Amino acid sequence: MIEKNLLLIILLVFLGGCGQLNVQNSCDCELEKNSISELEDKLAELKKLQDKSAALTKKSFSEYSLLRKTKWEEIESKLQNDQASQAWSAWIHGCESLIKLDAWKSVCEQANNLLLPTNKEVIKYLHTHFDLYKAHNEDGSKKGLITGYYQPLLEGSRTQSKKYKIPLYAPPRDLITVDLSKVYPELKYKRLRGRVEGNKLIPYFTREEISKKDYPLQGNELLWVKNPVEAFFLEIQGSGVIQFEDDSTTQVGYADQNGHPYRSMGLALIRQGELKRHRVSMQSIKYWAKKNKRKLQRFLNTNPSTVFFRELPQGLPGPIGALGVPITSERSVAIDRRYIPLGAPIFLSTTEPNSSISLDKFMIAQDTGGAINGGVRADFYWGQGKNAGAKAGRMKQSGEIWVMLPKNFSFPSATK
Known about the structure:
By secondary structure, this protein is an alpha+beta fold. It is built from 13 helices and 17 strands. The protein has helices at 2-19, 33-51, 54-59, 76-81, 88-98, 102-112, 119-129, 207-210, 228-237, 265-271, 282-291, 293-300, 386-394; strands spanning 67-70, 130-135, 144-151, 153-157, 166-169, 176-179, 191-197, 200-203, 221-225, 239-243, 249-257, 307-311, 332-334, 345-351, 358-367, 378-384, 396-406. It is globular and about 60 Å long.
């Protein structure tokens, strides 16, 4: 059964890729037309086998199924102590996207009628229009990992030079994306990425392949920066500000990714004895990199994932999150959208970075991340610059999450 499921995925990739190869220099799908009907018949047959697979059925679940309805009293005192009104602008930004969805339209229309509400008015609005749910992990536990991220500031240029020689890439024109959910709803948010070679869809270039001297993405550079480690962490953060020598700036944001999984460079350094586990942080990795320039590229390559960027419009109040709206420092959070609806208001109870001091905040789930996986898992957005980076780099805390959903919210049925 496992082999048949694997074959199913391979066929899916082939068919999905062939259906989306309308880019320059792609394969000519006319070559496959004679065999498409045969492949579709085989795909249908394998789909029936897939439906009978106990292994996959057990792993399938309905979105947000680990949320448990609870009472507002669980967070009432913490919510009263928080300056909830400070998150209102983040919520209004989110409603620019959410108001297009039936489940959120009414609550967003009501929010747009409130101008500069007080804390009491925000809390009253939440009580009136939302039910409260407690987030759980798959094992039933209620606490999870809370990390932090930020928007770094890098020195850069629009042209390559001896000073600026590290490229930030725009999405390559030969990058093909296959949306698996079009065939299997249970694979929602799952995408395969690759490139066409002959008449086959194969994995896209890894970080190591991209970084070679005869690198395959030559001519696809968006901008150039000074420091390879700063560029690496820019990919992890997903957005940043590039400052040019004339003091002008531009924001860059996530545009796409090469399809390879994210692998932790910090974990690789631990396994090779370069750093002690308890000392690994963004700051310690940067310090190690300064002292080990000859080893650096080898350890950068342990993460095969590469992020591609785009320039963002001028004047945005913050980077663009996965919801498609600007995110807000200390009020926006990244979550796993399989477990928490993207755009939902949440209440996060955790502690300050590397501290036992309570950090309890009303926030908005406006972003996602490749390393953000699980029912109780969040990435706290600290803002822009060095101070925000210092907090984000130290933040590996335990925390709890409550999710606020409209009273008329309809939960998806279980995937079969």
